[in-house]
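Design job #97: recover the sequence.
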C-alpha cells in the first residue's frame, strides 16, 4: 500500500524546501524594504529631496526583488510581511510626492496591488500630520492648511471602501485611525491659526499705538 510513500514524501520535501527558501529570501528583503521606506520618509521630513529620491528608488528595487521571490513561490505571498512591506513602500512614495507637491503615484506607477496602495495611502495620513505639526512649529501655519485638506480627502476616499477585512487587508481599521488623526490635526491647526491671528492683531495694534516690541 505504501510502495510509493518515499517517492511522494521526497517530492513534498523538495517543494516545501523551495517554498521555504523563497520565503526566507522574501522575508529578508521585506525587512530591507521597510527600512528603506522609513529612510525615505525621514529624508522627506528633512526636505533632502535628492536623498529621498535615491532612497525611494532603492525601496522600489528591493520591493521588486521581494516580489520576484513571491512569484517564484506564490505560497509565500500569503505571508503578512509581503503586504506590510508593500504598504510601507507605498506610504514612502505617497509622502514624498505630497510633501514635494508632485503628482500622486498610483498602483500601476508603483507596481503594487490596489489593496497595498490603499493601505499605504491610509498610513500616509500619519506622516502628513507630522508634516503639518512641523510647519506649525516653524510658524508656517498657512502652508499647513492644504495638507489637512489632503488628509481629509484621503480619509474620505479610503472610508468609502466597505468590504470585509479579508478583501482589503485591514483597510477599515486604518480608516478609523486616519479619522482620529484628521480630527486631532484639525484641532491643532485651528488653535495655531487662532494664535497666529491674535499675534498679528496685537502687532498691528502695537504699531498703531507707536509701540515697539521692547516698549
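Job complete. Output follows.
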Amino acid at each position: 500500500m505504501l510502495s510509493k510513500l518515499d517517492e511522494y514524501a521526497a517530492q513534498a520535501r523538495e517543494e516545501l524546501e523551495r517554498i521555504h527558501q523563497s520565503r526566507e529570501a522574501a522575508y529578508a528583503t521585506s525587512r530591507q524594504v521597510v527600512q528603506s521606506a522609513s529612510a525615505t520618509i525621514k529624508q522627506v521630513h528633512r526636505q533632502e529631496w535628492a536623498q529621498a529620491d535615491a532612497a525611494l528608488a532603492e525601496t522600489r528595487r528591493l520591493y521588486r526583488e521581494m516580489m520576484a521571490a513571491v512569484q517564484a513561490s506564490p505560497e509565500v505571498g500569503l505571508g503578512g510581511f509581503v503586504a506590510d512591506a508593500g504598504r510601507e513602500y507605498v506610504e514612502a512614495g505617497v509622502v514624498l510626492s505630497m510633501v514635494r507637491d508632485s503628482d500622486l503615484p498610483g498602483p500601476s506607477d508603483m507596481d503594487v496591488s490596489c489593496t497595498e496602495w490603499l493601505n499605504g495611502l491610509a498610513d500616509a495620513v500619519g506622516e502628513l500630520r507630522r508634516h503639518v505639526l512641523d510647519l506649525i512649529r516653524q510658524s508656517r501655519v498657512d502652508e499647513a492648511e492644504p495638507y489637512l485638506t489632503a488628509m481629509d480627502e484621503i480619509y474620505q476616499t479610503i472610508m468609502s471602501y466597505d468590504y470585509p477585512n479579508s478583501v482589503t487587508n485591514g483597510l477599515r481599521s486604518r480608516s478609523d485611525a486616519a479619522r482620529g488623526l484628521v480630527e486631532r490635526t484639525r484641532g491643532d491647526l485651528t488653535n495655531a491659526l487662532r494664535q497666529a491671528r491674535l499675534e498679528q492683531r496685537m502687532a498691528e495694534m502695537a504699531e498703531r499705538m507707536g509701540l515697539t516690541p521692547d516698549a
